[in-house]
């Protein structure tokens, strides 16, 4: 299974700025069209599901895409108060289709290592300064309108519109 980590900071954390594991020493930024990314998410189910959730998706023909929610990090590796999505792509048809969706691949390993160097040399550097240096991208919330997909991916919580008990 190949894992996509859409969050720059979480990818840096997971890879140790590309220095954590010599077998995973490159960081690649992949670009997909929004509709392709939405299709990929529509094929997903969360890795940790309750019995009810398993029963809810039992009859659905999904592509085996795994979704995990892990604590988000900032670029200095500090834990934040919300979670970031990780998307596991299985082999087979889904992987072949996903590979065809990629419109651009950029090796951002050097950018990650430079970011680590700057943070090490200037611990008080701000995120805004890092953005101006081109070391931190501008990231936006990716909205998913399909309520069923949001529910299946665990994007519904008590108190949210879909999670309301009213």
Helical segment tally?
A: 7
Helix proportion: 25-40%
Helix/strand/pairing category: alpha+beta
What shape does the CA trace take?
Answer: globular
Q: Could you describe the largest sheet, including whether it forms a barrel?
A: 4 strands, mixed
Pfam families: DUF4291
Q: Would you mind describing this structure in some detail?
A:
InterPro entries: DUF4291. The protein is built from 7 helices and 6 strands, in the order βαβαβαββαβααα. The protein is α+β, with helices and mostly antiparallel strands and 166 residues long. The protein has one domain. The strands form 2 sheets. Strands 1-5-4-3 form a 4-stranded mixed sheet. Strand 3, helix 3 and strand 4 form a beta-alpha-beta unit. The longest helix has 13 residues. The radius of gyration is 17 Å and the shape is globular. The mean pLDDT is 86.
